[in-house]
Design brief:
globular, 343 residues
Length: 343
């Protein structure tokens, strides 16, 4: 009820202005802003990648690009929090307007373009944070960095955030940075991963701990490409895959005017694409390789379906915007073992 009232007020504003006001409130007043919702999520610890997650429900990257609201997300009971995408240098992103709601479809379209304050700012915010949840950091390249030298941007970000990250996600799947998805091509992906894994080993020896590296993939890859990436990830020593980012497709939205906007689509229409990609990856990597399911999770049933398709963990973003903080607890309960769910 409280969030329904807040959402009505926020949805009366421009989508990006609404987002900015929410981030400001959660950043400056984390305890006050989360007070009606704190403490509701379920503690159901799970061990994965050498990390202990409070529960299987995480915040997806993109909602808190600069790590400004970590304390607030932690109070809302997320099992893990992924901040970013962050780039080496600050950048404004694409011109506004660049964020669009499709309320009837419970969806968003964004073409933000990795707008962020740069890795030095994020590293400082993360360094100052204290939270129970596992902290993931999502890294990317600057828009003006040629794809041929993109690895240098990823390498710089990895070095800057390594000391404070629970895990690091390599984002090569956003549709809103020109040519970024070219990095999913086999040869380029292998070169990128070899360099970053080499850097990871160097940092691990220096700091005494090995931070897991994950790769976030697009839902628009076909099954052959997904299987090839899965094989590469396992072969080279990547610790997990995230399926999926937003889509450039517009499934079922042919008569929706806003769907003509360029950018990545998230929310309910993404659900079948993300679910299919996850299932393909699980078959490709076998039962023991960590997978995180994200895209179109709007209730506990969606979270459970992702788990049944092979996800070890799930993440939410657009569902959080439409459903509010209560979605965290709902999904966490849905992912409890059956015996614990009925108690």
């Amino acid at each position: 009820m409280i969030y329904e009232f807040a959402r009505k007020a926020l949805f009366a504003l421009d989508p990006e202005r609404s987002h900015e006001l929410t981030i400001e409130a959660l950043s400056h007043f984390p305890r006050l802003a989360t007070a009606p919702f704190a403490g509701r999520a379920t503690d159901a610890p799970v061990e994965l990648m050498g990390l202990r997650f409070r529960n299987r429900v995480g915040l997806a990257a993109g909602l808190d690009k600069n790590g400004d609201c970590i304390a607030a997300w932690d109070r809302l009971g997320f099992g893990f929090i992924e901040v970013g995408t962050v780039t080496p240098r600050p950048q404004p992103g694409n011109p506004r307007p660049r964020l669009f709601r499709l309320p009837e479809q419970q969806a968003l379209i964004n073409r933000l373009g990795f707008n962020n304050k740069g890795v030095d700012y994020l590293a400082e915010r993360v360094r100052e944070s204290r939270c129970r949840a596992v902290l993931g950091i999502n890294i990317g390249k600057n828009a003006d960095t040629p794809v041929e030298t993109a690895v240098d941007d990823y390498d710089r970000c990895l070095r800057k955030v390594y000391a404070w990250a629970g895990y690091v996600t390599i984002n090569i799947s956003s549709p809103n940075t020109k040519n970024l998805r070219d990095l999913q091509e086999s040869a380029r992906l292998k070169d990128l991963l070899r360099r970053l894994l080499q850097t990871r080993e160097e940092l691990a020896q220096r700091q005494g701990r090995q931070v897991p590296l994950l790769v976030k993939l697009a839902p628009d890859l076909d099954a052959v490409a997904l299987r090839e990436i899965a094989a590469t990830a396992r072969e080279l020593g990547v610790n997990g895959l995230i399926a999926t980012n937003t889509t450039i497709q517009r499934p079922g939205l042919e008569r929706v005017a806003t769907a003509a906007e360029q950018g990545g689509l998230s929310g309910a229409p993404l659900r079948p694409l993300a679910l299919a990609a996850l299932a393909t990856l699980r078959k490709a990597v076998g039962p023991d390789f960590p997978l995180i399911g994200v895209g179109g999770i709007l209730d506990g049933a969606d979270a459970l379906a992702r788990r049944e398709a092979g996800a070890d963990l799930v993440q939410i973003y657009t569902g959080f915007i439409y459903r509010g903080p209560g979605l965290v607890a709902e999904c966490a309960r849905a992912l409890l073992p059956p015996a614990a769910r009925v108690r």
